[in-house]
User: Fold this.
Amino acid sequence: VITGAGSGIGRALAQHIAGKGGNIALVDVSQKGLDETLASISHCSGKFTSHIADVTSEQQMQALPEAIVAEHQQIDVLFNNAGITIDKTFEEHTIADWQKIIGINIWGVIYGCHYFMPYLLQRPEAHIANTSSLAGFVGFPKQSSYCVTKAAVRALNESLYAEYKHRNVHVTSIHPGAIQTNIFNVAVEHSVDQDASRKFFEKVKKFAMPADKAATIIVKAVEQRKQRVRVGKDSVLTDIVKRLIPVSFHKLLASVFAKQK
Assistant:
């Protein structure tokens, strides 16, 4: 099961798993995105189903596992992958912004884990892979809502890992750095200064990892039952620097942000 399967890392995960012969339930809020993902894996031999669901809706997420089991008879791996960000200062964030991002990035993951867990526990060996971010390690300027939600997902992953390590459900915490997906465009679309935001993300795209390469790393980490995986050199470096100089790192971020204003 892959949420956010209509684009980005979700689509790349579907393509990689389909290439390995896996059966996949694709979940997204966009029918167009799901259709495009299905078309991209139609040459593969597995069974693929698409399911429209808004991960912020408890009712839809509660009904989702049963709908998938009706098609596939079992659920072995859950990728809670759907997520968004915006590029705004804290003052520019509206409460509606917070509600939207928390709804997708946190509640979507909680609903997924909660309502799929009974089905995963029925399997002899099951897996949950929740997408956090390098932003789960550090609070970046103009990314307060994203960092809050991704830090929450990291903490949830660590708790679930400890609770279920000696049972049949393994948990992997996924920490991508910059990945070439549509998330940059969404961030720009919702920013106050779109021109400045666009220029910033154009710089980020220059070192962003292709989504298919990220998917390869993520699937390998799940196969190896890793507790966490840092995807990209930027994710690894951010994690290390934050551990070595936690206070100085944030002073540096504050200085850089002050110069950009």
About this structure: The first strand starts at residue 2 and ends at 3.
